[in-house]
Amino acid sequence: MATLLKKVDVVTVGVGWAGGIVAAECTKAGLKVVGLERGGNQDSSNFAQIHDEWRYGINYGLMQDCSKETVTFRHNKSQKALPYRRMGSFLLGNNTGGAGAHWNGWTFRFMPYDFEIKSLSHRRYGNKLGDDYTLEDWGISYDEMEKYYDRFEKTCGISGEPNPLEKQLGTFRSSAYPQPPLQKTKILKKFEDATKKLGYHPYFVPAANSRDVYTNPDGQVLGQCQYCAFCERFGCEYDAKASPINTVIPAAMASGNYELRNHCNVLEVLTNGDKAVGVRYVDTRTMEEYIQPADIVVLSSYVFNNAKLLMVSNIGTQYDPKTGKGTLGRNYCYQVQNAHATAFFNEQFNIFMGSGALGLCCDDFNGDNFDHSGENFLHGAGIFALQTGARPIQSSSLKLPGGAGTWGADFKRAFNYYYSRHMTISTQGASLPHKENYLSLDPTYKDAYGMPLLRITYNWTNQDRALMSFFEKKAYDIASNLEGVEYVTGSHGITNYSVVPYQSTHNTGGTTMGASPDHSVVNNYLQHWDAHNLFVVSAGNFQHNSGYNPTDTVGALAYRAAEGIVKYYRSGKLLA
């Protein structure tokens, strides 16, 4: 029998960027908020001297425990899905702060084209991809989103510079980045020179790695980046990387209106008619069950968990790929990151140093920033040179020149030489929705708490393959034009989606936003169409994935959702 607790104004499920922002803004407005986090608690002191690549970089010490909960995967709906035993392809966070504690800090805004992709693509190209691709507008414009982007970037103290294509892309800024960009290193200068020679427009990746000591609008102080190279998959011991645990969660705590509960795994959203009335959760240490009533329920966990909770709670209509009906689980997207080229030099670089978002990027072929009339794909990709820190174990998978192989004396000799004498030109491509790529509940496998696992049905599409082929050539061309380059190796296409090599953590869709319940799960305040006091906040709201990282847009949407939650609390009405 579950223990019934005292009702609160708002309960959030998950305490990462989304849950932290909602908590901070709602508590500042006077609402009483409880945050439920299935992992343990952590703050920056937990990360002191954890530069242990084997434990954290390879064995995912800060990630979700797949022995308790995971997802199942299949390439198409005729296959039987099987569970991930190890999250090789994307790295879900655990504990307070979620993936926001171990992210790299890339903080890109999506383009106006992203928010109105169906309308703008059809206007320029007609229905170029055909009806198998389920493109949708987001029900909001970049102009409406801009103030929320600005808010999130000031919270994080973003280090950056204007995109030289800003006017062309339509991504205006109401204010400058809070801090100048990070330091330009020797390999970044090589990329800058090569891309400018080719007529491209490089600029610094917007970074949540603080260039200087910075105090954000809520009064939290970020330290100066030490370029230690332990960002992605690691927490920052210097508080130089903005994360929920050194920004929005402390802001919520300071209000006196917030309670954070750890080791609380939510099993179900409870409903009464068309209202959510609270959540049922289990204490993962004692296995005792509790019911937390609330006036407003906010699902602010990762993409997969938000979708799963709606499904097991029978809220919304499950997407059916045979009929195209239903919205829950629809438009699941990933990201195309396979196209790259690696350049090798005789010159040595200090690539063992770096920062999570230290890099330069070109957007000349991102979004609809070039004419796609002669191409077999829409959207595009960012093209990058990065110095995030070449950690030795992960670097050992480097494809070396000269037939050095992958083991033995020749490999060791070549690896030791080229470890500090290479750079990779990488790309990050958009992922567009396809009718056969979706999320659903697995009929066979359950988690440690007896709930069905979420099932992913996904494979690369012809759109993905055409996009990757285009950007393989671009990456190779840039690498070949780097000053002093001696050898270039490239990527070689994609076949089936692989669940093993890491590509990105950028899963999107399944709980999409829009202007109508016919094509979305939530409205543009992320308020559920079928239960108006239920808000769903994550990258699951995206109707597709861009050529950028999702975090800036997740943060911006969380600020908008928080604004909507306060409005709804005071009015009790569906928001326009």
Estimated structural class: alpha/beta
Globally, the shape reads globular
Unreliable spans: none
Q: Distance between termini?
A: 40 Å
Could you please describe the fold and organization of this structure?
The protein is an alpha/beta fold and 576 residues long. 23% of the residues lie in helices and 18% in strands. The chain has 13 helices and 20 strands. The protein is globular and about 65 Å long.
Tag the structure with descriptive keywords:
576 residues, alpha/beta, 8-stranded mixed beta sheet, 20 strands, 23% helix, globular
Lay out the secondary structure.
Blueprint: E1 3-4, E2 8-13, H1 17-28, E3 33-37, H2 53-58, E4 71-74, E5 82-83, H3 112-115, H4 117-125, H5 142-156, H6 166-169, H7 186-197, E6 202-204, E7 214-215, E8 221-222, H8 248-255, E9 258-262, E10 264-272, E11 275-283, E12 289-299, H9 303-312, E13 340-344, E14 359-362, E15 381-386, H10 392-395, H11 408-418, E16 422-429, E17 438-446, E18 452-457, H12 462-480, E19 487-490, E20 534-536, H13 551-571
Parallel strand pairs: 1-12, 2-3, 2-12, 3-9, 4-18, 12-20
Antiparallel strand pairs: 4-5, 6-14, 7-8, 10-11, 11-12, 13-16, 13-19, 14-15, 15-16, 17-18
